[in-house]
Amino acid sequence: MSKTIRLGTIIAAHGRHYLAESEGARLQCVTRGKKTNVAVGDSVRLTLTSPNQAVIDAIEERKTLLYRSDQYKSKLLAANLTQLFIVVATEPSFSDDLVSRSLVAAEAAGITAHLILNKTDVTESLPRARERLQVYTAMGYPLHEVSARAEPEATVAKLAPLLAGQSSILIGQSGMGKSSLINLLVPDADIATREISEALDTGKHTTTFTRLYHLADGGCVIDSPGFQEFGLYHLSEGMLERAFRDFVPHLGHCKFYNCRHLSEPQCSVLAAVEEGKIARMRHTLYGQLLHESAQTLY
Ligand SMILES: Nc1nc2c(ncn2[C@@H]2O[C@H](COP(=O)(O)OP(=O)(O)OP(=O)(O)O)[C@@H](O)[C@H]2O)c(=O)[nH]1
Ligand SMILES: [Zn+2]
Questions:
Q1: CA-to-CA distance for 137 and 108, rounded, in angstroms?
Q2: By C-alpha distance, which of 117, 10, 124, 110 is closest to 58?
Q3: In angstroms, rounded to a whole number, what is the distance separating the alpha carbons of residues 251 and 63?
Q4: 226 C-beta closer than 6 A to ligand 1
Q5: Are 173 and 115 in contact (CB under 8 A)?
Q6: Among 76, 260, 264, 280, which residue has the least CB neighbours within 10 Å?
Q7: Where along this sequence does the record place binding of GTP (predicted)?
Q8: Is residue 54 part of a domain?
Q9: How high is the mean pLDDT in each 10-residue block of the chain (298 residues)?
Q10: Residue 230 lies in a domain
Q11: Would 232 be classed as within a structural domain?
C-alpha cells in the first residue's frame, strides 16, 4: 500500500490517544514509539494507516506552547494558542495561587491572558470577588464579568467577539462554570464532546480530556479538564522574574545584576513590595516557584 501523507490538527488528546482533523475527516492517531509530546492545537503531519486512522510523523513548528510541570514530568496543555482565559466565580471561592500560576504560565508562553468573573448574579459575593481581582486588573489583565446562568445572551455578546478569530483556552478550577460558558459559546459542544469521546474511545472519562472546538465566527476554543495544581517547574529563574508582569518595571534596578529578589540588599523588587507596588502574595508565589524550579529532576 502506498503511503498517504496528510496535514492535520490535533483536536483532542487522552493519554497517548489523539484525534486529528484532516480534510474534513476525523482520524484516530497514535504517535511513533512512546512519544507523548503532542498537544491539542498542534499541526501535524500524518501517515494514514486506514480510512480513519493515522500515525503522527511530525509536529509542525509551534507558535506557542502552554504547559505545566511537576518535579518529574511536564504536561502539555495546548499548542498554538493566542489567548488564555482564566475562569473564576463569585462562589465557590477561587484560588489566587492558581490564578497567578496560570498568568505566569501564559506570560512565559507569550500568550495574552484575560480573567472571566462568572456568576455575577450571586450578588452577596460579588464585592469580595471584585476586590480580590483588583490585584490582577491593576497589572493590566482585562477582567470580563458575566453570568452564564442569569444572563446567557449578554455573556455571549461579551465573550464571543473576544474569541472570534483567536485560538483560546479556558481554564479554571472545578465549579467556576467553565462548562456552562463553553456550552454557551459552542452551541453544539455536548454533541461534539460525545463524538470526540466515542472516536477516542475514552468510555466514561468524557471530561478528562482536552478538546478543541471550532467557533462559528472563526477561530477555536480549547476546553481543558479542571485541575487543582499548576506546577511550573520548567521555568528558569530568568523566565520567572519576567513572567511576573508586576515585577518587570522594577527589573534591572537592583544593586546586584544577578539579584534573585529574595533577600538581597538594595533589591528594587523587594523595595516595590515594601512600597505596596507589588502585592506581597505575588512575591511569596515568586519565591515558591523559584524554589520549585530548583527541584527539577528531569
Ligand atoms: N449562580 C450561578 N451559577 C452558575 C453560573 N454558571 C454556572 N453556574 C453553576 O455552577 C455550577 C458549576 O458549573 P459548571 O459549568 O459545571 O462548572 P465547571 O467549572 O465546568 O465545573 P466542573 O465541571 O466541575 O469542571 C453548576 O451548578 C452551574 O449551574 C452562573 O452564572 N450563576
Ligand atoms: Zn532584586
A1: 19
A2: 10
A3: 27
A4: yes
A5: no
A6: 280
A7: 118-121, 172-180
A8: yes
A9: 81 90 93 87 95 94 93 89 98 95 96 98 98 97 98 98 97 93 91 81 65 93 84 90 97 95 97 97 96 75
A10: no
A11: no
